[in-house]
Amino acid sequence: MGTTFFLSPLSGLLTAFLGLRATALLGGSIATAGLLLSSFVVNEVNALYFTYGLMYGLGASLAYTPSLAILGHYFKKYLGLVNGIVTIGSSVFTVIMPSLLEYIIKYHGLEWMFRVLAFFTVGIMLCSLLFKPTPLMIIQTPSHKHESVKSLLKTIVTVQIWKNSKYRLWALSMPVALFGYFVPYVHIKKFIEETFTDVNDNLPLQCLAITSGLGRLTFGFLADKRGINRILLQQISF
């Protein structure tokens, strides 16, 4: 999970160089390969660090950014609602997957759980083929060697936007605000198992997913309305 979001800047750069379709296809391929390889090394945690932690994390990161960026190419008027509908998929599967994965692990083993996940992840590659092609970024070769690094950085990184004080504040405060976002998703099930007996330990996670999905749809719908301050909506959420 950490790898997926830590490598988001890399995903953004590759999207600029390769385009949305190619980046998503590459990400889906790496993620699928990582899950398949993980199914053969379920008893080797050091190998899983690489195949699941790094390979799948990298692949998911490369696929995540294009899957949201592509929406702006198809939708303008109802972009907020469309974002809500697209991202609600994560909520739906968070409700379904815990019970499904537990069943697979119990009756078929961890290796088959990874293979089932790999089967789902193939869908990323198939969906990416439907993306509308986007123009590639043209990188001009610097005329002098001593200017090569500086020119390349200017081409890759948009410096102008960092001169906006409000953007700097937002970009620096968001990671701090999201610091504990995944803690419940990772640890709440174990906490329930250790604290309570004879209860559904998946239920709190599923409730999180349901309310998250409702919030995405509601705020996506509101964000498209005239006179609505979208920044204020985000502030209310936090």
TrEMBL record:
Entry keyword set: Membrane, Transmembrane, Transmembrane helix
Lineage of source species: Eukaryota, Metazoa, Ecdysozoa, Arthropoda, Hexapoda
A molecular function (GO) term: transmembrane transporter activity
UniProt keyword Transmembrane helix, yes or no: yes
Keyword presence, Cytoplasm: no
Identification of the protein by name: Monocarboxylate transporter 10
Gene3D superfamilies, per database record: MFS general substrate transporter like domains (1.20.1250.20)
Domain of life: Eukaryota
Membrane-spanning parts: 48-71, 78-100, 112-131, 169-188, 203-223
